[in-house]
Structures are given as C-alpha cells and as structure tokens.
Amino acid sequence: MSENLYIPSQATKSEKYEAILPQIESLILDEEDLYANLANISAALKEAFGFFWVGFYLVKGEQLVLGPFQGPIACTRINPGKGVCGTAWVEKKTQLVPDVEQFPGHIACSAASKSEIVVPVLKNNEVVMVLDVDSDELDDFDTVDQVNLERLMQILESTF
User: Fold this and answer.
1) Closest Cα partner for 97 from 83, 112, 82?
2) SS3 letters across the chain
3) pLDDT per position as a tens digit, 32-76
4) So what's the pLDDT on residue 2?
C-alpha cells in the first residue's frame, strides 16, 4: 500500500470508514511489527477524521501504558477501572462517552477533551490493549464510530 490514504472529501462518516478500513487492513496485514501497525492506525484515524487524540494503551502488568498515538502529550499509565480506558479494560467492552465530565472517575489528561470512545482489543478473551479516541467536541461519537472502530480492532486482533 502507498503511504497515502484515499479519504473521500464529501463523504459521510460511514462512507469515510468504508473507504479507510480496507486501506488500513491492507496496511497492517503485511506488517508484523505491532507498534508500526498501532502507529499507522492512529495516524490514519487522525488524518481521516481529525480527531483531537487517537492512540493506544497497552496492558503491561497491572496497568495500561501509553503506546503509539497522534495528538498532544497524554497520561502515561492508567490503573484498572480508572477513567474511560481503565473501565473499558476491566469491563472488556467499548465505552462511548458523550461528555467526559459526566463520566465517574474521568482522568483529565487534557482539558480540551470533551467526548471519548475506548475500544478494547482482546486476545484469548483477555484485554491486551485499548484504542482511545478523544474529541474536543461534546457528543462527537456515535454507533457509527463504535461499530467501525470495533471492526477495525477485530482486524487488528487477527494480526497477532
């Protein structure tokens, strides 16, 4: 795959996902290095949607540890059950948060973050990492994001 994404400029959110998911799949299926794949996934999502922050936290021991990302500096470590990422880890399910200020125990890595979606990545039914996507707008994520980001993480799960 080339180093450029084709992102339709006048597309709906669904159409953008339909355009980029096969491109990301093609990009990561031929690469065995996990960190390279996480970096490219983060970059592709940021480029396609202009999200405020996109990245991964990897389970290392008893914490989530910051991995590849795109956006401003972020929290380095997150404990189980803490914030949106820690909750997605413990509950093993996607967290869709329209207003992070209303989420109990939200970790404010950036005051600019207003809404968030976190999708766990599983291997052998255990969370090994989470995809964290933040927006600087309230209620910026919906079921279109959830369905497509979960699809993308299933593609990622198949690579390791």
Assistant:
1) 83
2) CCCCCCCCCCCCHHHHHHHHHHHHHHHHHCCCCHHHHHHHHHHHHHHHHCCCEEEEEEEECCEEEEEEEECCCCCCEECCCCHHHHHHHHHCCCEEECCHHHCCCCCCCCCCCCEEEEEEEEECCEEEEEEEEEECCCCCCCHHHHHHHHHHHHHHHCCC
3) 999 999 999 999 999 999 999 999 999 999 999 999 999 999 999
4) 56
Domains delineated in the chain: 13-157 (3.30.450.40)
Place of tokens 């990422």: 85
Does the pTM surpass 0.85? The reply is yes
